[in-house]
Amino acid sequence: MPGKLYYPQCTVFIVKGKTVSGNTFGNIFRITTFGESHGPALGVIIDGCPAGLLLDENVIQKELDRRRPGEPGNPAATPRFEPDKAEILSGVFNGTTTGTPIAILIKNTSQHSKDYTDISEKFRPGHADFSYFEKYGLRDYRGGGRSSGRETAARVAAGAVAKAFLREKGIFIKAWTEEAAGIKCGTYDESEIDNNSMKAPDKEAAGRMLESIDKLRMDGDSAGGIVAARIHGKIPAGLGEPVFDKLDALLGQAVLSIGAVKGIEFGAGFETARMKGSESNDPLSTGSEGEILFGKNNAGGILGGISSGAEIRFRVAVKPVPSIRKVQKTINTAKKEAEIAVHGRHDVCLCPRIVPVVEAMAALVITDLYLRNLASRI
Amino acid sequence: MPGKLYYPQCTVFIVKGKTVSGNTFGNIFRITTFGESHGPALGVIIDGCPAGLLLDENVIQKELDRRRPGEPGNPAATPRFEPDKAEILSGVFNGTTTGTPIAILIKNTSQHSKDYTDISEKFRPGHADFSYFEKYGLRDYRGGGRSSGRETAARVAAGAVAKAFLREKGIFIKAWTEEAAGIKCGTYDESEIDNNSMKAPDKEAAGRMLESIDKLRMDGDSAGGIVAARIHGKIPAGLGEPVFDKLDALLGQAVLSIGAVKGIEFGAGFETARMKGSESNDPLSTGSEGEILFGKNNAGGILGGISSGAEIRFRVAVKPVPSIRKVQKTINTAKKEAEIAVHGRHDVCLCPRIVPVVEAMAALVITDLYLRNLASRI
Amino acid sequence: MPGKLYYPQCTVFIVKGKTVSGNTFGNIFRITTFGESHGPALGVIIDGCPAGLLLDENVIQKELDRRRPGEPGNPAATPRFEPDKAEILSGVFNGTTTGTPIAILIKNTSQHSKDYTDISEKFRPGHADFSYFEKYGLRDYRGGGRSSGRETAARVAAGAVAKAFLREKGIFIKAWTEEAAGIKCGTYDESEIDNNSMKAPDKEAAGRMLESIDKLRMDGDSAGGIVAARIHGKIPAGLGEPVFDKLDALLGQAVLSIGAVKGIEFGAGFETARMKGSESNDPLSTGSEGEILFGKNNAGGILGGISSGAEIRFRVAVKPVPSIRKVQKTINTAKKEAEIAVHGRHDVCLCPRIVPVVEAMAALVITDLYLRNLASRI
Amino acid sequence: MPGKLYYPQCTVFIVKGKTVSGNTFGNIFRITTFGESHGPALGVIIDGCPAGLLLDENVIQKELDRRRPGEPGNPAATPRFEPDKAEILSGVFNGTTTGTPIAILIKNTSQHSKDYTDISEKFRPGHADFSYFEKYGLRDYRGGGRSSGRETAARVAAGAVAKAFLREKGIFIKAWTEEAAGIKCGTYDESEIDNNSMKAPDKEAAGRMLESIDKLRMDGDSAGGIVAARIHGKIPAGLGEPVFDKLDALLGQAVLSIGAVKGIEFGAGFETARMKGSESNDPLSTGSEGEILFGKNNAGGILGGISSGAEIRFRVAVKPVPSIRKVQKTINTAKKEAEIAVHGRHDVCLCPRIVPVVEAMAALVITDLYLRNLASRI
Questions:
Q1: Interface partners of D (3+ CB pairs, < 8 Å)?
Q2: A52 touches chain C (CB under 8 A)
Q3: pTM score > 0.90 for this model?
């Protein structure tokens, strides 16, 4: 299905002043992020976090460190140095949340933009710069403005607070790289995930992924992959609202709002399309202590958009990094054909960096729905 | 990954009064739906539809008729008779919208609930009734309340207004059954889609789908499938907001909020996970009249969460209908093990009924983002 | 302070398509109204009403009847006949709310518009038709569209549900005409309010108000007045959010959104501007059973935007009906000077009709804040 | 109307964890404030400010300086030193807004809290501490948390951006002290307002106000007053939405959300209650150059909730500062009767400090409605 660009009619958007809206997410536990990758700082305000939660900057820093690229010996990531340091500016007193808005600040330190100048007049295929240029009529050649992957640092900071809340309720969220550069994990060892720079639960597969990625890097190419996630522990049945704010609908928005994600499926997902009902349905039974059991989990823990109490499972398609050194055909800002080879330090495979962002976005959704459930009691 | 239900901790939700929230969708073009499948009526208020749009009840009726089940000779659908008749109560004067809220009413006529009584004390595997019971502490044995598929009639009515708006802008939305009961379409003839009861673009494949479905019906079983969609015509580049309200994120929420949908992917979707960047990226070039062309459309018309001007493409996984006549293991409301065989008239494959709902939800997202783009001009 | 109209610069708004936004009010208990005074129907959807509340159409009808004009012997009101009949379309089952959206419909019966034709080309001084024309570039000569006083019927219907909720919590809202046509009430007998067509708590003053109003009607003139309100019973301390959603801020928006209201004050209101702190402050003490008492109530039950537990009190300035038979100077739609005498049946003093609307709007605010308080528990 | 506190029933709110919600204001031009008076910083995020607006920190600083107390020779204000310094963290590039969220930070410097310790166990009459204690079950003895007047610094910073936007459109907002300690202004000299520490437009009256206030300070008492405002210049007719988001309704919420404000009236306000329609209505005519004129401005520039193009006028009742040195009766946190004399440095009359906050809140409302008007074009 080759796509023809209907260029003439979008002239309507080429007007001078515009806003970049949609910076708020959530209903009761509600975050607003701000900041450009090359401005003085980025950050987030969390409005609606309940009082009484133990919280300090270490809780947030730990999560920020997990998304940091460039750990030694990690060929999947770029070696740029971004020492994201979280500062809590409000909403916490004596190590406890007060119920007031929590503002978290992350100062930008390395604001050099010289790496980008050579590509400032050509559109990188597969990259947001073309659609941004069409929308806003200008390019932030310094590294993407609000579209930069760096914006996700604010999400991870907010997600760290949500995860702390959920931990107190006995709910845990874990994401990992399930597949990268065509190599799949064969085993699941949760303790291994944060041990390797692929964030894969299978040590041996992680090693082979890194080898493949190293080879692609030398070829000037990049790799896609699959990130998977589970939400487990004391997940109550009943999370999710039955019409537009279904649990899977909100997780869908949350996760698809992460750059490079091209699809999401819950439980058996696309496989259910080829099943019969008698195969797809998860039978219910009871265990020895009267607990309710599902015989399998094709539903991924979600029935009718509401959590069933079974583990919540989803999988996410991550496309290859579009910025590659290999020569590609493109056009320039004057709409003339050109060739481009994107130099500079770029990630080869985004999966390990997306893992903590997926956890953060899922934590925001679960926390918000948890609080909405409480709100509906009278 | 068998799922153990953590039942004890959800007792917190078993309190008497609760609200079913999340009945509103959209930002500027904003809809609120209401109505139970067995109450006097259901409907929708559209707030934010611009004045000056030609609109009458036929425009809405035409779409409602497309989601109606039970056309003669359609073994995929249930033969229940639901003559959904749209009435416009406000917001339209002399066949033109006035800019005020548009209220659309669809009266319920057949409110008999006897078909459901035999299953009133057992949970149907794969069905929402278990998670609803856990959330709300009660069951609406009359047919699902807000979780009923009938709620989507209100979405289709609102979507008809959005489609009318988009048509005036030269933007068209088309969905179809791409695969059902394991049978895939091989050809794409758009004019064929509304000609067969599978809503498939391949007449011959549609015939084989119906045969398979007929056989499954006789076996007391059901089938899943894939619904695909394209948004084409004068799609402007620039739809979608760069952070949480990305075009794919909002389409994701919209489509995953339809019952039985277990996954969504954009463009090449999950396939991109196994591609290299040099394969995944869509090269840009220019045509003979200076128009911009994408060499292929792995991106599905979306780059960085913003439309690129290329055709927008996505695919949706639809699970099999969970209500089947075949005997299944389950538990009853007293949490004892039991067996269940769901009698009554049920759809075997939901794809044809989901097709117009997917179009409606996509139309709501595109219209809202289109108006948000206009709103950001100064 | 004579006002010069800066006409030229508003040309920017004279464009064809526009929306009439702002039809939703509330956060958790959230209403959206729809309907024009001369369309087929008007109504409201309430989203967020908790399940388990006893509700039937009589509860709503009783309130609608209180705002109906034209009771025999009521010279304050117009004798037009508007038999507002409430129908509940969803959200109620067996006389109890289910937590799903409650849609209430009020059909319009008398849709004749001939009374308005003679004024279709001149702007009525003091009336919304000039500002509407400037905003929307058109006039709904049929009676005001969304600006019609009839829109308040939908608010009263929604308010009836809120009042039913508050009654269960032991909270009561009562408004009355405190002053009209220059005549003030001297006594307060709550049982008298619904006994006279002025809705005044002082029978004798009500009689004199009606005499004055009758005289003004004969002169082709009209009268303003004061509506006062108290919220009493088991009002919990703690209603209201400390920053933008203070209790008085939200009551202010709610009440000032009623047509003809030109001011609101809480407790001693504008009088506090001339007090010393030692006079203005309400001292706290304890009663014989340990209950907390305020020595007086200059604060009107609100401290720092949050209810103190004392009775909530506010007063509302209602301007005279602008449509009068007396000849006035004006301009016509061609922007030429003209004279106008507004014929037809119009209210002389709006106070009695505004009384139930003030109660409804206050009930919506109190209910919403009550539920927000519940929502913030964990 | 002495108020009896219904204490027992508010026990429902005395639960441990709670959120302080309602920190966001506005629809398209939308602000979220954060920060406690004694935490590390306070600030605001503005989401929805159009790109292309000239903005630097001086624009914001200038407004912040106007609300600063303690200028030499100002007996109305407390001599505490608060050097509010605005830092822009995002959303501005090369002195121009980019359309992305604008984060503004104001660091707290003097965080000593010792002045408050002596009153930590008694409720100050007329002060928010009683209602806060009842709502949240705890007191922030360090100076009010989110209820502190210092929170308004964030509003003033956001308002400075809104005022810069409006200035470009030729719209100006000016507030002033019209009356304080019983002394009214007799003349209006706009250039005088920022010349005296009362922010009064009448130099001589300002002098007498300061004398009165000095005397009250020595008596350990305080004073109320009236703040008035005008919005003038190229005000377009058409600002305001016709139902719940009327211009006066939103200005009402905005201004009543400022602490110590007990009432608001538009145009002739409460006086219209005693007028006849023939007196209250503002006649329309045309001027020598065809411009439209209103003969007077009882409407305060607002008809049917929508700006008419005439100057917008409103007046605000400000109660006396509740913290006074004079001995008052009260109760303590153990609910026993007590006496209190509030020592420490407090303002005597809040009017001059409220003036820039009223301007800021009005600017936020006008900017938001201006952008909503643009948004509704198609």
A1: A, B, C
A2: yes
A3: yes
